[in-house]
Structures are given as C-alpha cells and as structure tokens.
Amino acid sequence: MTATSLTDRKNAAISRGVGMTTQIYADRAENAEIWDKEGNRYIDFAAGIAVVNTGHRHPRVIEAVKAQLDRFTHTCHQVVPYENYVELAERLNEIVPGNFAKKTIFVTTGAEAVENAVKIARAATGRQAVVAFGGAFHGRTFMGMALTGKVVPYKVGFGAMPADVFHVPFPVELQGTTAEQSIAALKKLFAADVDPNRVAAIIIEPVQGEGGFYPATTGFLKQIREICDQHGILLIADEVQTGFARTGKLFAMEHHGVVADLTTMAKGLGGGFPIAAVTGRAEIMDAPGPGGLGGTYAGNPLGVAAAHAVLDVIKDEDLCNRATSLGNRLKQRLESLCEKVPEIVDIRGPGFMNAVEFNDAETKLPSADFANRVRLKALEKGLILLTCGVHGNVIRFLAPLTVQDEVFAEALDILEASIIEARSA
Ligand code: PMP
C-alpha cells in the first residue's frame, strides 16, 4: 500500500477536520527516528507534538507498560483503584512547583486537564469568569476552545462558546505588545468588562506553544501573580506543552519562581501513552464534591505505568540539562545563519523549547510561506518539522531530549540546508 493510495483512503474515510501536516504513514519508530511504510527514514523533530520527550519507545517506558499489560489494563480507578495511580499522584504533588500541600487528579488529554482545572477553580472560588491570553492554545473541547486565543481553525463554525471567558493580549514584543501593555489591557478588562471579584482564574502558558513559542517573562508572570492575589483569583499554569524537562527544567514555571495554584500537564508525562493531570493546592483540589471529577479512562493503568518510567528516565538521564545543551547547540547553529538569511527575525526559547521566526526579507511582514518552504524542504530531506504561531511564520523544534548526538548533528545539517534552499525557492 503506497502513501498516495493511503492518502486517498484517508480522505475518503476520515473527516477533513483532522488536519495533517505530513503524508508519512508511520511503520515503526525508535528514539528520534521514524520509518514509514515505504521504508523511508525520518528524523522526528515533532515528537508527536511534544509528547515523546523521552524518545519513541524508550526501553524503560516500554518495559513498564509491558509489565502493566501482564497484570491488568483497565479497572477504572473510580471502581477498583490501583496503587500506582496513588503513587504517581504523590510524585506529582512532590515535584510540581509550590511549597504547600497538593493533590492531583488524572485525566486523559491536555484539553481535559484544562477543563478540569477550570471546573476546580470555579468550585473553589464560587466564581464564574476565566481570563486567558490572545494566541493561547488550551485544547479542542468547548472550554479549551473558548480559552484558546485563535479563531481559525480552532473556533470557526463551532457556535457559541461557554460564557464568561475573556482574553487579553499576550506580551510579544516582536509583534508589538509589551508586558506593560498586556497588564494595562488586563486592568482595562477589569474596569470595562468583568468585575475581578467574579474572576475564578487566569490561565497562562509559561511559554505559548501553538501560539508561537513565545516565553512569558519573569516580570510579567510576577505581575500576573500579584494581580491574582490582589483579587482572590487563582492562577492556572498550563504546562501541557512546556512540561517535563522540555524547557530545561521539569516545569517552565520553575524558571520564574512564580507559583501557580493549579498546574495542567499531559503530553510529555506519558511518553507516548495518553495520560494528563491537574495538580494544585490541596484545599482547592478538594472543592468539587465526590463524583464531580474523573472519567472512565482517567488515569488509565498503562498511562500511569508509562508516566512513572518517564519521570525515572528524566531524572536518571539528566534530561533537563540535556535539554539546555541541545537547545544551545540548535540556537547557535541558527544564529550562525542570520547574516546569510535576512528572513530570520528571532531565535528563542528556554532549554530545548526553541523556535525560529521568519519575516519576508522585503516586506518585513511575517512569512508563513517561508516557514512552510523550510518545513517542506526539510521533509524532503528526511527531517520532520512543525510550524506554529498566530501568523504561521514560526518553526518550532520539539525533538526528543534523548536524541543521539549524531542524529542531532545530521538534523542540524538538514535544517541549515533547508533554510538556505528556501531562500531560492
Ligand atoms: N494546552 C496546551 C498548552 C497545549 O499545547 C495543548 C495541545 N497542543 C493542549 C492544552 C491540549 O492538549 P490535548 O491535545 O492533549 O487535548
């Protein structure tokens, strides 16, 4: 079966609403490499969108899941609980930033983690409203979609969003919004649109993911924390994409010394198995009544077993430091191209949560076209890249933190050649 005929079958069988960035049908994968059904080999700088930070099929993750498969695969924790769920909650309560008593729930996807964080915040505060940021991405469920700060493609055609969701601009100086302007917009929102005493939570990604890999500064996060404290608003850190060593720390909020009341996690936690979590202040987490939280597959045993192994691997293989050193090498390589490539307007990101942003060399406007040309050139040469950003002009790098040095070096060569070739395309 060729990829072309599979694409035809896919188009006939699957809603076009499920977008696809490549037409590569995976056959097998190992660490940072994927082989397709036709035997072509690719270096994977997408990692299933920031999921396999520990690489495809890390032997310890596979071993842990196999051991769990041989014992039981599903009982539903709300019916017949299991110890490793409790133990994983204890581990997250220990490692999620915040020097206070914490509790955790498990769910299955990032969007579900966000939904539950909002439910918990509303139950704990008795308030309704939620504030999020322009360019944010928080998922494809109704609350996740409402909180997301981008209309096309995420909200268009899907009707009325849940009420009481407000947005203020995320500070991106490159796009003309400073931290002061964002704070001023938040204050204006409180003066013009919503009484801050009605706001249950402010939700923020410490580094915007889908929105363009823009990091929030320490100063900005501190101000947001102060505003939350001033009005009794809870702070939710959405660490779904930033979590688990990607930024050079286990959690991105650790870079700032700012502590959220609730933290959402997913993606990297399960190393390729679906599991997500909300961890937060114990008294807040206990606000919803019994039965108000959970789900049939929430905290599925295979995901829980995988997550324990992922946390062990991050520690034993020192992946936080590995993220920092890989990110430095990538950023240096990109910086060495700046003189030759005037389209490069920014290279950024903590640890290995890096991105390069392109503008058109003449118009100086964001160039999704250039970013796409780079992505397609790289794909032709066997490197899978993802774009992101409200203007689609950013390439984000999400390779596994376990990528071997020689594979990484090969990927950097392909990246450089693709950027240069994109100029003459
Ligand atoms: N929050 C953030 C910050 C994300 O990056 C994502 C996924 N890209 C989500 C929530 C939604 O996660 P999921 O796709 O697992 O529902």
Using brief descriptors, characterize the structure shown.
about 425 residues, alpha/beta, Aspartate Aminotransferase, domain 1, Aspartate Aminotransferase, domain 2, 2 domains, 7-stranded mixed sheet, 4-stranded mixed sheet, 17 strands, about 15% strand, binds 4'-deoxy-4'-aminopyridoxal-5'-phosphate
Descriptive report:
It contains 13 helices and 17 strands. By secondary structure, the chain is of the alpha/beta class. The longest helix is centred in the C-terminal third of the chain and has 20 residues. Strand 13 and strand 14 form a beta hairpin. It folds into 2 domains: 159 residues, Aspartate Aminotransferase, domain 1 (Alpha-Beta Complex), CATH 3.90.1150.10; 255 residues, Type I PLP-dependent aspartate aminotransferase-like (Major domain) (Aspartate Aminotransferase, domain 2), CATH 3.40.640. It starts with a helix and ends with a helix. The model has no long low-confidence stretch (mean pLDDT 97). The structure holds 4'-deoxy-4'-aminopyridoxal-5'-phosphate. 4'-deoxy-4'-aminopyridoxal-5'-phosphate binds next to helix 5.
